[in-house]
Amino acid sequence: MRIRSCRGIEIGINPAFLGLCLIYVWLGIGEVLWAVLALVLHEAGHLAAAAWCGLPLSKVELFPLGGEISTEGLVGDQPYKEVIVALAGPAVSLFLAGLTYIMDRNLGLTGFSFFAQFSLLLGVFNLWPALPLDGGRILRALLSRKIGVRSATLLSSWSGYVLAGTLLILGIYWGRSQLEAWCLPIIGGFLAMKVRSELRMLPYSFTRYLVRKRLILNENEVIRCSVVVVPPTMNVGRILNSSRPDCLMIVAVINSRGQIMNVLTEKVLIEEWLIRDPMTTIAELLSDPE
After folding, report:
1. N or C: which end of the chain has fewer CB within 10 A?
2. Which of 147, 148, 187, 133 has the alpha carbon at shortest distance from 14?
3. How far apart, in Å, are the Cα atoms of 139 and each of 147, 151, 155, 219, 223?
């Protein structure tokens, strides 16, 4: 649900977040305002980190136990920046939890107990290694340097499905004796929807990643490389599924006798992938007179 646009940044609140707030108000849990404040400050940490990394923002949305920011360029090609931005939110939440705990216990300032507890929950929960949580984005960024952006996204997304299912089961089990526990299935259902959205957007985001990587490879910069050996029957799409950020693939094509037939760079494969069917084999690519 879009609220307004500020300096080109779309600001919105997810309907699930509004629904959860209404449930807490109906249950008489007045501390919901403290929860909203904790979420806003958590998201402010992400925004500050994105600005510090020089990433232009396009969208900010609040949802239960976190939020989502959309930035230009944060699609896998800059994993270290993705880690910084993802860590910033939980870091702010954990810092505020510790600060308000000290104020509550040592300075005699009361009323911060719920804020401290919720901030602690917010920080710890978001570090769980599952998309769309911050921990899932950290996991994807770290794994992308080992197994490639696409495979890292798939693994982190399925971890999100596991977490969503766990919350659903726990919510139903605990909900029999604790009415407040029914918020867990709501959060679990929302997480499952966000994971599904991540997977549906994967073809687009992966294409965008390849386009950006091709532009980076056009620049005169030193870049590390890795050599992969493939048969001519291998298709271009399968090879590029292993594409890693900050690393150029050198593809050696070998025949059945183990002899090198040709050597291709990742840039060539990306260009062919963008204009042809990703299922095009290396043999078809090499036989093309163009």
Report:
1. C
2. 187
3. 12, 12, 9, 28, 23
Q: What is the pTM of this model?
A: 0.83
Give the bridge partners for 133, in sequence order.
none
- Tell me the domains of the chain and their CATH numbers: 2-211 (no CATH), 222-287 (3.10.580.10)
Encode pLDDT of 168-194 as tens digits: 898 887 777 776 667 788 888 888 988
DSSP 280: -
Beta strands in the chain (DSSP E): 2-6, 9-13, 57-63, 66-71, 224-230, 247-254, 260-265
10 Å CB burial of residue 68 (0-12, 13-18, 19+) is middle
Q: Can you read off the two tokens belonging to residue 111?
A: 């009323």
Apex 185 CA angle, 182 and 187, nearest 5: 105
- 137/135 Cα distance (integer angstroms): 5
The per-residue pLDDT for range 198-247, each reduced to its tens digit, is 899 888 888 888 888 887 776 656 678 888 899 989 998 899 988 888 88
CA 85, distance to chain mean position in Å, is 10
Amino acid at 177: S
What does the alpha-carbon distance between residue 144 and residue 138 come to, in Å, rounded to a whole number? Answer: 10
| CA angle in degrees (0–180, nearest 5) for 73-74-75 | 95
Residue 48, SS3?
helix
DSSP string, 132-192: TSHHHHHHHHHHHHHH-HHHHHHHHHHHHHHHHHHHHHHHHHHTTT-GGGGHHHHHHHHHH
